[in-house]
């Protein structure tokens, strides 16, 4: 999917650390904790998404999952603030899960390899939080990692604008893919569907904002 991903194909945890030159200048307690983990963080995030998808498939779990793994106005009114984040690990449909996890695997592993585990995790959680706080004005029930993967994708594009991404069957520079995704998310606003396009847009803008906040750090 990505030319740059091929460089990381055979690298394990130690390989990621050798690439992480920028984050070494800001090495703190979180970095030390993450370094103790045997695998890169994106493995754990993907595993969490798959596990929570499995919970959706268990009969009788629907109400529990709606209360704790979706974002909607009722959950916030009733004090379930953890759903501002947990919804971004939650998928009911396999194709929804598969698409998001493929995106996370290819783009997230490059970001973690280049900038470190803390940066990867920060982008994922920031995209989730932006999607829930800024992108659900219409009070929909939303779930899925799309907001986080959009943040991850746009952060990747900002850092590697000339890398080639295969969009469907077309190889395109990353910056062109970014423009297509931005236009698609913006133009879909108010289409009366059950898809929260504004939360996807919030994820995209989060990735751009994160890039400018962390550039050179």
Helices, strands, pairings?
Elements: H1 13-19, H2 29-35, H3 41-56, H4 62-68, H5 73-77, H6 83-86, H7 94-115, H8 117-134, H9 146-159, E1 164-167, E2 170-173, H10 174-187, H11 197-214
Antiparallel strand pairs: 1-2
What does this structure look like?
By secondary structure, the protein is mostly helical. It is built from 11 helices and 2 strands. Strands 1-2 form a two-stranded antiparallel ribbon. A hairpin with a 2-residue loop joins strand 1 and strand 2. Helix 7 runs parallel beside helix 9 and helix 9 packs antiparallel against helix 10. The longest helix is centred in the middle third of the chain and has 22 residues. The N terminus is likely disordered.
What is this entry, summarized?
The chain is mainly α. The chain has 11 helices and 2 strands, in the order αααααααααββαα.
Index terms:
mainly alpha; 11 helices; 61% helix; 217 residues; 2 strands
Query: How does the helix and strand content classify structurally?
Result: mainly alpha
State the helical fraction: 55-70%
Give the uncertain stretches in residue-range form: 1-25
- Supply Rg: 17 Å
The portion of residues forming beta strands comes to under 5%
> Main sheet?
2 strands, antiparallel
């Amino acid at each position: 999917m990505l030319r740059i991903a091929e460089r990381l194909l055979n690298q394990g945890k130690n390989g990621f650390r050798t690439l992480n030159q920028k984050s070494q200048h800001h090495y703190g307690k979180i970095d030390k904790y993450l370094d103790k983990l045997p695998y890169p963080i994106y493995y754990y995030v993907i595993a969490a998404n798959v596990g929570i998808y499995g919970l959706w498939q268990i009969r009788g779990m629907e109400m529990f999952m709606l209360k704790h793994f979706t974002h909607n106005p009722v959950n916030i009114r009733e004090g379930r603030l953890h759903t501002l984040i947990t919804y971004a690990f939650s998928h009911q449909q396999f194709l929804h899960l598969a698409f998001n996890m493929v995106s996370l695997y290819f783009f997230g592993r490059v970001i973690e390899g280049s900038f470190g585990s803390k940066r990867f995790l920060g982008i994922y959680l920031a995209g989730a939080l932006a999607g829930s706080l800024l992108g659900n004005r219409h009070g929909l029930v939303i779930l899925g990692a799309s907001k986080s993967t959009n943040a991850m994708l746009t952060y990747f594009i900002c850092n590697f604008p000339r890398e080639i991404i295969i969009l469907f069957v077309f190889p395109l520079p990353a910056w062109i893919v970014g423009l297509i995704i931005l236009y698609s998310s913006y133009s879909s606003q108010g289409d009366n569907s059950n898809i929260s396009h504004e939360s996807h847009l919030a994820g995209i803008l989060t990735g751009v904002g994160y890039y400018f906040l962390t550039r050179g750090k």
